[in-house]
User: Fold this.
Amino acid sequence: MNMDHSKIPQATAKRLPLYYRFLKNLHASGKQRVSSAELSDAVKVDSATIRRDFSYFGALGKKGYGYNVNYLLSFFRKTLDQDEMTDVILIGVGNLGTAFLNYNFIKNNNTRIAMAFDINKDKIGTEIGGVPVYDLNKLEEHMGGNIPVAILTVPAQAAQSITDRLVELGIRGILNFTPARLNVPEHIRTHHIDLAVELQSLVYFLKHYSMKEGSVK
Ligand code: ATP
Assistant:
């Protein structure tokens, strides 16, 4: 199972957590093997893509047998570093930020929001979903350079200057929920989730394309 993870294409890597979650459920229900057709049906990825993805993991399904659930699970656990907890910070404890703090990825057991930041005096010093909310002016003090990921749920106009500070502090990845497009150095990864745009594009697809085309990702 030793392999070079940089050889896994990014599109495949993005589907890993999806496969992992489904396989955990299968394992919990006592299933030993699964076919690519079953997987395809459950995770809504076509079975040719699944077979290609799994071939990168060294998991070769056998005709009429399928994939070994235990093998895949231990592979995913190692690959996704499930034993290693990744601390995340959240900046902007408004409506969306508060919802994340209350949810706090408990079902996803390798990440947790360790602390949150805001500039609103009424929010600073409180605790939401067990997560302390600190003053953003004291970001440098609290972060101490060892938190790799930040979630941004601030107003768009505040996003870039906060990002610049995070970059200074050695952040490695940013999950950006603001509508702002962020400028970051090349070695930093940003994932942009603009909920309004996602919703609008879904509605657009429903109006202009057939369901079949629209559901292909
Ligand atoms: P709310 O109902 O609490 O205002 P919201 O999500 O509708 O939430 P936004 O204006 O999007 O409000 O602000 C989100 C959060 O980001 C708020 O808690 C706000 O205090 C905080 N915030 C605003 N500007 C900044 C900033 N420059 N730095 C950090 N946090 C900020």
